[in-house]
Amino acid sequence: MKSDNDKSFFIIKPEAFNQREEIKRVIATQSDLKIIVTRTVILTEHDINTLYLDDIETDLMKAIKTQLIGAMVEVGIVVGEDAVIKLTQICGENSFPGDCPKGTIRERFGKRQPIVFRGITYYLNAIHKASKKEAKPAIEWFYSKK
Predict the structure, then answer these.
(1) Which site among 19, 56, 74, 76 is 20 to 30 Å from 50 CA-CA?
(2) pTM
(3) Cα(17)–Cα(79) distance, integer angstroms
(4) Is 37 helix (H, G, I), strand (E, B) or coil?
């Protein structure tokens, strides 16, 4: 691996947990990324604060936490050249699944009906993919989590 950009991290969220095997097949077949390890976990608020470095203090993130704290998810690490960028392309960049390109994970497995929590609208988009800022700390979290 040439750089930190050659590893990335994902979370298959609760709304797509039952489709996780198919989602992992999409990751493995739509790119040259290799999933090297996955694990199912129940997320705590501390975990979420560690894994979601972007937007952590926003009202949107507070709403998302209501869906993730205490929920069973599958987390994993992928490797390959430009893994962060490629995983983003496979997942879809937009939070709203309806705005993601056809065939992306969010377009295929995400929910188009919004959730409204305390006036905040958000979408159950099936997967979280780490940003460049989040990838390294998320991978460190994965290996430290027992």
Answers:
(1) 19
(2) 0.92
(3) 22
(4) strand
Measured between alpha carbons, how far is residue 118 from residues 58, 62, 66 in Å?
A: 13, 10, 11
Q: What is the DSSP letter of 126?
A: S
CA separation for the pair 8, 68 (Å, rounded)? 20
Whole-angstrom distance, CA of residue 51 vs CA of residue 53: 6
Query: Which tokens hold the place of 126?
Result: 């099936």
DSSP-derived letter for residue 69 is: T
Q: Which helix (H) or strand (E) holds 60?
A: helix 59-68
pLDDT tens digit sequence for 101-116 = 999 999 999 998 988 8
Q: Who has greater pLDDT, 5 or 131?
A: 131
Please provide the DSSP assignment of 82-123 as one string.
THHHHHHHHH-SSSSGGGSPTTSHHHHHS--S-EEETTEEE-
What gap in Å lies between CA 137 and CA 128, rounded to an integer?
Answer: 14
Which of 48, 31, 17, 3 has the alpha carbon at shortest distance from 138? 48
